[in-house]
Write a structure and sequence with these properties.
155 residues; mainly alpha; Four Helix Bundle (Hemerythrin (Met), subunit A); 7 helices; elongated
């Protein structure tokens, strides 16, 4: 945090690094088939959770004025309340990890050059910097879901 309680780029990089490391650890070595296994009733498969994280990072990039690598059409199936993920339309899991890395790299570059006025600009219910910190927290929550789902599917 910088003076005055505004979330700064360095704080955001640290928050996102922790969340991203947990996500990467959780999905490492999984195959596309494993990513589509439903861990239980009402629990999203790892493919959906990881794709949802890509979509969340795309929202964060948009807040910073950066174009996300994947178009919204590709992300729609990973948005909350989207129809159940269908095996033959899911993005190949082997494409999701590079997208996660590319989005994180773009976020870190944007954090490095973000000006205080950009991070203090108001979006929806608060400053951009706070919204980005909340997204990092949200991503950590999903990293925990991935870890639990992985155990449930025996991977």
């Amino acid at each position: 945090m910088s003076e005055g309680g505004v979330v700064d780029g360095a704080a955001l990089r640290a928050l996102w690094a922790d969340a991203a490391a947990r996500v990467e650890s959780g999905i490492a070595g999984l195959s596309h088939e494993q990513s589509l296994v439903e861990p239980g009733a009402g629990i999203n498969c790892i493919n959906w959770i990881a794709g949802h994280i890509v979509a969340g990072r795309a929202n964060c990039l948009a807040m910073l004025g950066v174009q996300a690598p994947w178009p919204m059409e590709r992300l729609r199936m990973y948005l909350p309340n989207s129809p159940k993920l269908i095996r033959n339309t899911a993005v190949a899991f082997e494409e999701i990890l590079p997208a996660l890395r590319e989005n994180l790299s773009a976020l870190n570059a944007a954090f490095a050059t973000a000006e205080p006025d950009q991070l203090s600009a108001v979006v929806q219910d608060g400053p951009v910097g706070v919204a980005l910190a909340r997204y990092a927290q949200h991503e950590s929550f999903h990293a925990g879901q991935i870890e639990a789902a992985r155990r449930l599917i025996g991977a």
